[in-house]
């Protein structure tokens, strides 16, 4: 019985699934914090829901002989003070943890590598400019969605891409996000990242991936007709494997 | 990373002048500083490399190309003269 | 003067029971959410990471 909600919650994975109603699995401390805050706020919301529903139900049920619905009462000083102060207090207890989280997620103190994500209509381009080859060229590649008719068995429609961002696990990564034409939005739910990609502006955001896996995200700012077809695919691998991949590039 | 092995990954660290999420000026300043630096000290002056690393890590390649072109045409907005 | 004593305090009594029941209802739902659902999710995740850390230690 206690696991009832866990059974409904079929999204125990790193990808969105049909009819899912909870978060994708978290892979970074940031996302764990977001999940904690969400569940915390939901706790307060359930209490409010219970109280308000019960009161409303009672008012409806006993309306005709309810002394609270006395028709000549036009003004109730006490109750008005109460229903102003109490919500303010509730908002405060929600606000403080959220500020802490907000400022923690904002920090990019000592990243070990930088990845640039540049949004185009309608694909992403990634640059790994910490690494320069002998010709002075940096690693840069574009990442397009795999069209429906080219999908192979097991690939995810509108989520899988031809090239993916490779990142090492347990490494502090800085994403520098920008766009070249219109506003896009770089979003990976499992990593707790969602940052707008504005033309002419560089936004940074950090991630510390704690486990290997493939994480998916989508452009999250309406950017035109193929807004749906510019997904983000991140492959988190161990550091030696990542270095191997770097050498291949 | 663990202490026993030196991490092969290095990138630009935190800069107190640019603590915000918006790193546009961080990239721009490093680009201007680098070219000012090499104009004064010459291409091979090692300390200039810091700026080079910073701007190449942060600035999109397209931006750098555009600015390089502007410098060649003499229309660059930043002050890079010694 | 009426023969029956005036009936007072019903409002106070009602509102007290109603608020109690309301909070009890809400508290029950919230408790289920937190201890029944949220903690399960967190424990699953922590177990996974504990296992992962163990695996990494055994490999070294």
UniProtKB/TrEMBL annotation, chain A:
| Metal-binding among keywords | yes
Main subcellular location of this protein, as a coarse class: mitochondrion
**This protein's GO CC annotations:** mitochondrial inner membrane; respiratory chain complex IV
Q: Which PROSITE patterns match?
A: COX2, COX2_CUA, COX2_TM
Family membership noted in the UniProt record:
Belongs to the cytochrome c oxidase subunit 2 family.
Q: Provide the GO MF annotations for this entry.
A: copper ion binding; cytochrome-c oxidase activity; oxidoreductase activity
Highest taxon of the lineage:
Eukaryota
| CDD domains linked to this entry | CcO_II_C
Q: Which InterPro entries match?
A: CcO_II (IPR045187), CcO_II-like_C (IPR002429), CcO_II_C (IPR034210), Copper_CuA (IPR001505), Cupredoxin (IPR008972), Cyt_c_oxidase_su2 (IPR014222), Cyt_c_oxidase_su2_TM_dom (IPR011759), Cyt_c_oxidase_su2_TM_sf (IPR036257)
The compartments listed are: Mitochondrion inner membrane
Q: Which Pfam families match?
A: COX2, COX2_TM
Binding note for cofactor? Binds a copper A center.
Q: Which GO terms describe its biological process?
A: mitochondrial electron transport, cytochrome c to oxygen
The topology of this chain with respect to the membrane is:
Multi-pass membrane protein
Spell out where the chain crosses the membrane.
Answer: 41-60, 81-104
Protein name according to UniProt: Cytochrome c oxidase subunit 2
Could you tell me what reaction this enzyme catalyses?
4 Fe(II)-[cytochrome c] + O2 + 8 H(+)(in) = 4 Fe(III)-[cytochrome c] + 2 H2O + 4 H(+)(out)
Q: Where is the Cytochrome oxidase subunit II copper A binding domain?
A: 110-248
Q: Which cofactor does it need?
A: Cu cation
The UniProt function text for this chain reads:
Component of the cytochrome c oxidase, the last enzyme in the mitochondrial electron transport chain which drives oxidative phosphorylation. The respiratory chain contains 3 multisubunit complexes succinate dehydrogenase (complex II, CII), ubiquinol-cytochrome c oxidoreductase (cytochrome b-c1 complex, complex III, CIII) and cytochrome c oxidase (complex IV, CIV), that cooperate to transfer electrons derived from NADH and succinate to molecular oxygen, creating an electrochemical gradient over the inner membrane that drives transmembrane transport and the ATP synthase.
Q: Which gene encodes it?
A: COX2
Q: Which UniProt keywords apply?
A: Copper, Electron transport, Membrane, Metal-binding, Mitochondrion, Mitochondrion inner membrane, Respiratory chain, Translocase, Transmembrane, Transmembrane helix, Transport
Q: Cite the Cytochrome oxidase subunit II transmembrane region profile domain residue spans from the record.
A: 15-109
Automatic annotation (TrEMBL), chain B:
Per the UniProt entry, what is one GO biological process? Answer: mitochondrial respiratory chain complex IV assembly
Pfam families per record: COX6B
Which Gene Ontology cellular component terms are annotated?
mitochondrial inner membrane; mitochondrial intermembrane space; respiratory chain complex IV
Principal place where this protein is found? mitochondrion
Query: Any idea where this protein resides?
Result: Mitochondrion inner membrane
Task: Give one GO term, molecular function aspect.
Answer: cytochrome-c oxidase activity
Family matches, as CDD domains: Cyt_c_Oxidase_VIb
Q: Which InterPro entries match?
A: COX6B-like (IPR048280), CX6/COA6-like_sf (IPR036549), Cyt_c_oxidase_su6B (IPR003213)
Membrane topology term reads: Peripheral membrane protein
Which terms are listed as keywords in the entry?
Disulfide bond, Mitochondrion
From the record, give the cysteines joined by S-S bonds.
Answer: 27-59, 37-48
Which pathway features in its UniProt record?
Energy metabolism; oxidative phosphorylation
Please report which protein family the annotation says this sequence is part of: Belongs to the cytochrome c oxidase subunit 6B family.
This molecule's function is given as: Component of the cytochrome c oxidase, the last enzyme in the mitochondrial electron transport chain which drives oxidative phosphorylation.
Q: Please identify the protein, giving its name as recorded.
A: Cytochrome c oxidase subunit
User: What taxonomic classification does the UniProt entry list for its organism?
Assistant: Eukaryota, Fungi, Dikarya, Ascomycota, Saccharomycotina
Automatic annotation (TrEMBL), chain C:
Keywords on this record?
Membrane, Mitochondrion, Mitochondrion inner membrane, Oxidoreductase, Transmembrane, Transmembrane helix
> Mainly localized where?
mitochondrion
- Transmembrane region(s): 15-35
For this record, the Gene Ontology CC terms, alphabetical, are:
mitochondrial inner membrane; respiratory chain complex IV
Biological process according to GO:
mitochondrial electron transport, cytochrome c to oxygen
User: What membrane topology does this protein have?
Assistant: Single-pass membrane protein
Q: Which InterPro entries match?
A: Cyt_c_oxidase_su7a_fun
Q: In which pathway does it act?
A: Energy metabolism; oxidative phosphorylation
Q: Does the keyword Transmembrane apply?
A: yes
For this UniProt entry, the molecular function terms from Gene Ontology, in alphabetical order, are: cytochrome-c oxidase activity; oxidoreductase activity
Q: Where in the cell is it found?
A: Mitochondrion inner membrane
- Asked if the Swiss-Prot or TrEMBL record annotates the protein with the keyword Phosphoprotein, the reply is no
Protein family:
Belongs to the fungal cytochrome c oxidase subunit 7a family.
* Main function: Component of the cytochrome c oxidase, the last enzyme in the mitochondrial electron transport chain which drives oxidative phosphorylation.
Q: What is this protein called?
A: Cytochrome c oxidase subunit 9, mitochondrial
